[in-house]
Amino acid sequence: MNLPITDMPNSIKKEVDKLNEALSPFIKKVSKYSFWSFPLIVFSLINLVLMLVIMPETKSTVALILYAILGAFGFALSKEAKLQRRELVKVSEALIVKRISKSDIVTDTTKERYIKSIKAQPALSMNHFIRFLEEENRIMDDE
Q1: How many helices (H) and strands (E) are present in the chain, helices listed first?
Q2: Could you tell me which of 83, 65, 62 has the C-alpha nearest to residue 73?
Q3: Largest CA distance in the chain
Q4: Average pLDDT of each block of 10 consecutive residues along the chain (143 residues)?
Q5: What does the pLDDT read at residue 143?
Q6: DSSP annotation of 56
Q7: What pTM, to 2 d.p., does this model score?
Q8: Which is nearest to 110 in space by CA: 69, 88, 138?
Q9: pLDDT of residue 56
Q10: E strand or H helix at 7
Q11: 55 — phi, psi (to 5°)?
């Protein structure tokens, strides 16, 4: 969820940084799982194909089991990364909705509109959140 935030006002940068800080454990976990799953899957599949198709005379039961276990572990890591990504989206959405609800600057109808759009499009929640923060800043500057 790290976004380039070079041209944003400082208040928006602070809010996005708070969100990134809260989400960083999830992001690290997803990155680790994704990083290790792909090489394990590829390594095991290549070796299984080599042993079963290209060089069937050299197949060893122990090696086949080992490569199958490595592949299964890689697929399990991949599945866990996918589940952690979903959890990341849920936690991100909850934190953003909580922050929007706490705002005393914008009207309740505006808050509800942004919360509805975040719940309707969780993948775009950061965009909606940044737009909300911009609107909040605009209202604060007008006062």
Answers
A1: 4, 0
A2: 65
A3: 81
A4: 61 88 92 95 94 82 93 97 93 93 90 93 90 89 75
A5: 67
A6: G
A7: 0.77
A8: 138
A9: 80
A10: none
A11: -125, 65
| Token code pair at residue 42 | 């590829």
Residues 132, 137, 140: CA angle, nearest 5 degrees: 130
Which pair of tokens denotes residue 27? 């992001």
Radius of gyration over alpha carbons of the chain, in Å? 23
Q: Which residue has the tokens 């996918």?
A: 82
Q: How many Cα atoms sit within 13 Å of 7 on the Cβ side?
A: 0
Q: What angle do CA 138, 140, 143 make, to 5 degrees?
A: 110
What is the pLDDT at residue 4?
A: 53
pLDDT at 98: 94
- Other CB atoms within 10 A of residue 127 CB: 13
Q: What is the pLDDT of residue 12?
A: 86
Domain boundaries of the chain, sorted by first residue: 10-142
User: Using an 8 Å Cβ cutoff, are 97 and 118 in contact?
Assistant: yes
Please, which residues have CB within 8 angstroms of residue 28's CB and are 6 or more apart in sequence? none
Distance separating alpha carbons of residues 65 and 19, to the nearest angstrom: 44
Residue 117 in tokens: 């759009």
